[in-house]
Amino acid sequence: MASVNPERLAKEIFAKNPGRSYTDIETIINNYGIRIYYYAFSSEVSGIFTWIGNQPVIGINKLHPKVRQRFTMAHELYHFLKHPEDKQVLRMSSTANDNLEERQASCFAASLLMPKQVIAASKEKSTKALARLFRVSEEAMEIRVRELGMHNN
After folding, report:
1. What is d(CA 70, CA 64) in angstroms, rounded to the nearest whole number?
2. Parallel, antiparallel or unpaired: strands 45-52 and 90-93
C-alpha cells in the first residue's frame, strides 16, 4: 500500500464497523487478527507494532492513561494497514510525529477515533464533553476540532 490517505482509510474502516465503532478500537484491531499486549515500556514509548512469527502484535504502554492507549492502538493499526507484510518493528513515542509516516498514523488515529461526521452530528458541543464521549484526551479533541475548523468551548 504505497500511497494511503489516512482520513479516507479511517472513513472506510468506520463504514465497515457501524454503530459506536469509533470507541471500540480494540474490536477493530482484533478483527484484523492483531493481538494487543500491554507492557511497562519506558515513559517515552507509547506503543509498537511488530510481528511475533506470523502473528501481528501491537504493544501498548500500560503505564499511560487509557485515552492515550486508545490513540496509540489506532496509530499502530495504521502501520499494520500501510505495511501488512512488513515484519519490521515500527515504534511510536510520545513525540514521534517527526516524520511523514508518523504524522499520517496520528492523522489516521484521530480520524478513526474522532470521525468528523460524528463530531458534527453530536449534541455535545464542548471539547471536554466531546472528549468524554469519544474516550480521547481533551488535548486530542481540541486538536481534532481545530483541524476540522469546528469551534468548540
Report:
1. 10
2. antiparallel
Alpha helix locations (H) across 1-137? 6-16, 25-31, 66-82, 100-113, 116-121, 127-134
pLDDT of residue 91: 58
The pTM of this model reads 0.88
Grid cell in block for residue 115: 470521525
The C-alpha cell 463504514 sits at 15
Looking at residue 96, its pLDDT comes to: 52
Residues of the chain with pLDDT under 50: 1
Give the Cβ contact number of residue 20 at 10 Å. 11
pLDDT at position 90, please? 60
109 CB burial (10 A radius; 0-12, 13-18, 19+): buried
Tell me the CA distances in angstroms from 139 to 122, 124, 133, 142, one per residue in order.
18, 16, 14, 5
